[in-house]
Amino acid sequence: MSEFELKIFSTENRISESDFEDFYSLMKTSFPKSERRTKAAFRKLCEDEALYKIYALFSENRLCAFLTVWEFESFTFGDHFAVSPALRGGGIGTKMLAELKAQCTLPFIIEVELPETEMAMRRIGFYERSGLKLCDFDYILPAMQKGCESIPMRIMAYPSALTETEFEPIKKEIYKTVYNT
Question: Which of 71, 96, 143, 144 is deepest in the core (most CB within 10 A)?
């Protein structure tokens, strides 16, 4: 990752206030309200949740991209992944996923929108080119904030697709720990 610096933030390597503001700003730009936490909820995760980590790429001390993950005992769950709008399409997301996969020895799971729009299909294609596999079953993203609806989604997994039966214990852990449902 030549001109980029990868930093990993966690409860042991805390994020600075200015970096936190940059992260939340990029999150707001990249995700609709229904797919992101409130600022207070995001801050609490950064400060208190030992399973939660932020992989971030910086260039000249400026945030370029981030991927938030939950590192469970038997899998890693990708929560939010965003690249600065000015840098999208330049290979940063691919580099970021490659770095995470190199460091991650467990299955990697993400949620994606249903393949019903051109943008959703492009995102799924991006993840497939990075080695993730689209799982052939539906999944519901619980409401992220008050006043928001749950959202039908799909799951993608690395290094191989999961069956719905294989995913069931993972889903229970995600719902319990990530979404408090």
Answer: 96
